[in-house]
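Incident log, structure service

09:12 report received: a user says their structure output differs between two submissions of the same chain.
09:20 pulled the input from the user's history:
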Amino acid sequence: MKLESYLNGRWQAGSGEGRAFVDPVTDEELGRVDAGGLDAASAMTYAREVGGPALRALTFAERGGVLKAIAAVLGEHREAYGEIARRNSGNTAADAAVDIDGAIATLKVYARLGASLGDARAVIEPGRDQLAREPVFFARHLWTSRPGVSLQINAFNFPAWGLWEKVAVSLLAGVPSVTKPASATAWLSAQMLRDVVAAGVVPEGVLSLLCGDGAGLVEALGPMDSLAFTGSAETGAALRGHPRVLAEAPRVSIEADSINATILGPDATPGSAVFDLAVREVVKALTLKAGQLCTNIRRVIAPEAIADALRDAVAERLAATPVGDPADERVRVGPLVNVAQRDAALAGIEMLSAEAQVVCGGRRPDELVGADPERGCFVAPTLLRCRDPQGARRVHETEVFGPCATVMACAPGEAAALAARGGGSLAVSLFSDDAGYAAETALALAPWHGRLLVVDEAVGRNHSGHAIVMPQCVHGGPGRAGGGEELGGARGLRLHLQRSAVQGGEALLGRLAEGAVEAAL
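09:34 re-ran on a clean worker, output below:
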């Protein structure tokens, strides 16, 4: 099997040999991705000139209708997507649900947002400013669709959600998408887009897909375009400093590495509800999608009196967690996506072990359910204990992209400062029933984190989870995490809309307001 790209309104095969993608349970080749000989620049132009006008001709409500139709098509093929996720990503049923169902749910959220914005094509902010002594000259701020294209470069861990969360926002904003999935798991992205194209629910030119090397895409960016990237900090920095990006100044949003943390408050003692909730969340971080989530918990910060009990409780749960072939319903932890990711995770664990003691895991599993331990891309769920987090460096700087987390103790008032040692993160969670402590700590954490999850006994298990990105909330983080921001309901539209201060008289501003929806983005 060789995946095709959907460019210039048609499916096209590359002319080269391409790169293999595999079944991570056995490391056997499933197919290849290749973009050799494909004209990426013309695809960007096609999307801009054909897809852009088609989208901008639709109202927000009509664009929302397109998103609703896409969600319906994906829902019809849900079972087939789960099978692809199992075979190519090593996903258990629960892993696949986070990706596939998360994608469908996000599309539905933005479909409803489109309906709420109604029969308008622009957004006008509430209120106006008087600019002259006489009340005849005013200003209002207007948001309009940028006549460009959204270039979306996605990571391997979410081939469904990563694709559609970006498409949902750009499509609702009136901007076409050219998306490049990661080669290792592009099969699911390609199949989803093929089904949507076949259903005929999206205007021509609105969706484009390039499978394989993305050469020529960034070079084709223009001043009205945007670039949304999810991946390593190294690649993100290279994209941000690309000559074309510097020269043309397209909008750029980057989601990069993140050494996320969870914190237990002084009251989260063993036997308390919040202690048990924290243990549950750390175990989930070491099992769901084999730890391959960009928002996942990498550091667990607890008071000295709690840290060892927490370590033991998590290790006990992990010892009873089956690892192996996700086709077996007993399995809770599948493989990493390929051998390269497995070896990178093991190398990262070795680096961390210079500053922390391995409590459990730390290697390839000795036994697997339904799989051969000598083959495949498995890493045993790994928990470490760092005794000197203040003096350590690697535990705050090294992201092991797999089932690995490090427990560390903190002195009173030190937790937020330790979390900030990550240099800026996508998410942090806090477990405490002490509202005063939680509020004070949240204020200290907020500048360094894109999202804060605070769990007390009243919230209990009703929260969405440390790692789960909700479309109503912004996704991104400062500093090392890339400085980007996605989703957040209507806030996400800002990447693709232009805000202009319109100065004029009552008649002009009144007429503009008639054709726009009033909203604060």
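09:41 both user submissions now match this output. Likely a transient worker issue. Closing.
09:42 reviewer note: The chain has 15 helices and 24 strands. The longest strand covers residues 138-145.
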